Amino acid sequence: MKLFIIRHGDPDYAHDSLTERGFQEAELLSVRLLKENITDVYCSPLGRAQATAKPFLEKTGLHSETLDWLQEFPRPIIQPLKELGLADEDRRTCPWDLHPEVFNRYYDQITDPLHWSELPMYQAVGAAEMAGKIKDQFFDFLSKLGLVRSGCGFALAEGTKWDQLKEKNIAFFCHMGLGSLLTAYLGLVPPPVYWQEFRVMPTSVTTVLFQKIREDFVQSKIFTVGDVTHLASLELTYRG
């Protein structure tokens, strides 16, 4: 079984759609995905993700199911910039736009997989709570397939037919912050570390392979992060 975590194309945020370049990227992505034998498609409810999925769905005749929790991570954080002398007041930002000095000041706690969520900047407006809810919904999704989180992998639920499950190839059309959060949870990485150190480009594909290593145990391995080789014909543009 494979899971593809896909960021939407170059965004037109004002209209929750794609730019002209974004539509080109989505077309190139659709051709790349044709080689993956995708069986199931799930999509964020936001327009830019839906528009990214559309060319692939049209080419394959597959239908997508919209999952509300695949929308972009909906909570900001409050960075303590005033306290550190970095600004006249604290600033509300996306969790993945953390000031390097804030990261360094709270490094020990931010990099702690158990206690990062206790920092006030993640609790102030519910970012930590929301991250936990998304984690629960993601692993509930996997458990309904028969994969129950257990340590560094997944217990194969009783009655699950692996011979059928292993043929599934699932695509999530979502967003940078949300997709990074899911990848962090799969890779057992504290989300703030992943958000800070990894930035995936539009229509990038992160590929996760699930392999049975015992009769009752499946392990996930992240094979590629943010692959954009399908965009070779376009000049790559890197956003901050």
List the helices and strands in order. EEEHEHEEEHHHHEEHEHHEE
Count of alpha and pi helical runs: 9
**End-to-end span in angstroms?**
33 Å
Approximately what portion of the residues adopt beta-strand conformation?
Answer: 15-25%
CATH architecture of the domain at 2-71 and 133-229: 3-Layer(aba) Sandwich
According to DSSP, the number of beta strands is 12
How many whole angstroms does the radius of gyration measure?
Answer: 18 Å
Identify the overall geometry: globular
CATH superfamily of the domain at 2-71 and 133-229: Phosphoglycerate mutase-like
CATH topology of the domain at 2-71 and 133-229: Rossmann fold
Helix content: 25-40%
**Helix/strand class:** alpha/beta
> Averaging pLDDT over every residue, what do you get?
96
Order of strands, widest sheet: 5-4-10-1-11-12-9-8
Low-confidence stretches: none
Largest sheet features: 8 strands, mixed
CATH class of the domain at 2-71 and 133-229: Alpha Beta
Give the SSE map.
Blueprint: E1 2-7, E2 11-12, E3 17-18, H1 20-33, E4 40-43, H2 47-60, E5 64-66, E6 77-79, E7 91-93, H3 100-105, H4 107-110, H5 120-123, H6 127-145, E8 147-150, E9 153-156, H7 162-165, E10 169-174, H8 176-186, H9 191-197, E11 205-214, E12 217-227
Parallel strand pairs: 1-10, 4-5, 4-10
Antiparallel strand pairs: 1-11, 2-3, 6-7, 8-9, 9-12, 11-12
Helix pairs in contact: 1-2
Task: Provide structural commentary.
- The structure is a single chain.
- The mean pLDDT is 96.
- A hairpin with a 4-residue loop joins strand 2 (11-12) and strand 3.
- The protein has a domain at 2-71 and 133-229: Rossmann fold (3-Layer(aba) Sandwich).
- It has an eight-stranded mixed beta sheet with strand order 5-4-10-1-11-12-9-8, sandwiched between helices.
- Helix 1 crosses helix 2.
- It is of the alpha/beta class and 240 residues long.
- Helices cover 35% and strands 24% of the residues.
